């Protein structure tokens, strides 16, 4: 029996529309409008690298170019409309999702105890209640405030000192929350002081949580395989996602479709029965160029991005410089519904300049006068966002497709 086919152009439009990238990046970007935007795209990944600006800020700026980091700070620290915790990585999420995270806290406690032996080295577990009592009596702390006399290792998390370990354990398992960040350093406080009362309702039961995780993932993605449904929030197991998808198919809540990839190949996926109408109704993205964060939600699933857009991307931060194909931290360039290249740029705030080291077009893409003009306009906007007053193009910036 044949199944409907979702053409590649329509699949791209739908996917970009669900990620707020199929419209002009204009409009308000503070308060409730910003909270609504984060809710629409699901979550915003947090990252510390400031080559131009931190990932969470670039993600929001690429959708609303009136956005400024102070607006997210207010949303997190004053309005408490969003909170920070884990999806696939540290992320900023709508605070209304917090009840679902109780299941993650429980699962993380089991997983961490089983797999991260560092949590339970001699003397470490004793710090949990000590840290809680200190925060309860004296207020929020950072890792710099605790464990000053403890031996600190030189490695990764496995060499954290006991108090640092306690803070992370208590945060990952829900007893502490991140009240704010000073610079990029987490400031921990008791969850009941950070998360509003209405959002600390009891957790839904497990079937309800699974249904939410799968339904909402599919809504954000537009169409997905069971593996993509599972990976979206990283809140459920692959088996739970497969079982949910199977049951939804049997009820008629989902249908199977063949999604066409950039090269004409198809991938069997699942979608709501109205997916073709939704894709046809999705707007055509404007042709203006956008410089995206490498951690943009639309690109987080590298395999999905490659399938839909024919865009192979791997971040090379941890690749030795002589072995890099592109650069330390290059930014994908979106034009309409196409990813047309990547750019190596860095903000030198002390000199007030955004320097462009290199641009690599995708195969078949040329940077003629009109496209270069649109790129220059976007870079001017990006420079202002990064507190720079001009753009400087370094010699040899225009590269060949790799």
Draw up the topology in text.
Layout: E1 5-6, H1 8-18, H2 31-41, E2 44-45, H3 55-61, H4 69-77, E3 82-86, E4 90-94, H5 98-115, H6 126-138, H7 162-172, E5 176-182, E6 185-190, H8 191-194, H9 206-221, H10 226-233, H11 238-251, E7 255-260, E8 266-271, H12 275-281, E9 289-291, H13 302-309, E10 331-335, E11 338-348, E12 353-361, H14 369-385, E13 390-393
Parallel strand pairs: 1-7, 12-13
Antiparallel strand pairs: 2-4, 3-4, 5-6, 7-8, 9-10, 10-11, 11-12
Helix pairs in contact: 1-12, 6-7, 9-10, 10-11
Describe this structure in words.
The protein has helices at residues 8-18, 31-41, 55-61, 69-77, 98-115, 126-138, 162-172, 191-194, 206-221, 226-233, 238-251, 275-281, 302-309, 369-385; strands at residues 5-6, 44-45, 82-86, 90-94, 176-182, 185-190, 255-260, 266-271, 289-291, 331-335, 338-348, 353-361, 390-393. With 402 residues, the chain is an alpha+beta fold. Among the domains are: 116-195, Arc Repressor Mutant, subunit A; 289-393, Aminopeptidase (3-Layer(aba) Sandwich). It has a five-stranded mixed β-sheet with strand order 9-10-11-12-13, with helices on one face. It has a three-stranded mixed β-sheet with strand order 1-7-8. A three-stranded antiparallel β-sheet has the order 2-4-3. β12 (353-361), α14 and β13 form a beta-alpha-beta unit. α6 packs across α7 (162-172). The longest helix has 18 residues, at 98-115. The protein starts with a strand and ends in a 9-residue tail after the last strand.
């Amino acid at each position: 029996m044949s199944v409907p086919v979702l053409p590649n152009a329509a699949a791209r439009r739908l996917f970009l529309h669900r990620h707020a990238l199929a419209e002009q990046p204009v409009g308000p970007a503070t308060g409730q409008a910003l909270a609504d935007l984060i809710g629409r795209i699901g979550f915003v990944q947090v990252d510390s690298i400031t080559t131009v600006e931190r990932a969470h800020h670039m993600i929001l700026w690429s959708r609303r170019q009136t956005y400024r980091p102070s607006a997210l700070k207010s949303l997190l620290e004053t309005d408490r409309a969003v909170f920070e915790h884990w999806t696939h990585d540290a992320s900023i999420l709508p605070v209304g999702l917090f009840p679902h995270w109780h299941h993650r806290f429980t699962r993380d406690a089991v997983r961490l105890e089983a797999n991260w032996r560092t949590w339970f080295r001699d003397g470490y577990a004793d710090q949990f209640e000590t840290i809680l009592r200190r925060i309860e009596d004296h207020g929020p702390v950072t890792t710099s405030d605790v464990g000053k006399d403890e031996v600190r290792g030189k490695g990764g998390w496995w060499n954290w000192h006991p108090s640092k370990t306690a803070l992370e354990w208590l945060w990952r398992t829900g007893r502490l929350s991140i009240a704010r960040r000073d610079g990029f350093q987490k400031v921990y406080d008791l969850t009941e002081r950070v998360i509003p009362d209405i959002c600390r309702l009891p957790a839904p039961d497990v079937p309800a949580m699974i249904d939410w995780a799968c339904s909402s993932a599919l809504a954000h993605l537009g169409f997905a395989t069971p593996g993509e449904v599972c990976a979206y929030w990283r809140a459920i197991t692959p088996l739970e996602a497969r079982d949910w998808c199977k049951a939804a198919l049997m009820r008629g809540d989902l249908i199977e479709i063949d999604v066409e990839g950039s090269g004409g190949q198809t991938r069997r996926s699942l979608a709501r029965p109205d997916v073709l109408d939704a894709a046809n109704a999705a707007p055509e993205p404007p042709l203006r160029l956008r410089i995206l964060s490498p951690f943009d939600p639309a690109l987080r699933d590298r395999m999905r991005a490659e399938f839909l857009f024919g865009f192979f991307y791997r971040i090379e931060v941890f690749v030795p410089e002589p072995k890099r194909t592109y650069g330390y931290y290059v930014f994908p360039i979106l034009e309409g519904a196409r990813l047309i290249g990547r750019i190596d740029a860095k903000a030198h705030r002390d000199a007030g300049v955004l320097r462009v080291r290199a641009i690599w077009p995708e195969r078949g893409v040329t940077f003629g006068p009109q496209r270069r003009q649109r790129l220059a306009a976007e870079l001017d906007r990006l420079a202002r966002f990064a507190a720079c007053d001009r753009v400087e193009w370094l010699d040899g910036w225009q590269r060949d497709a790799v």
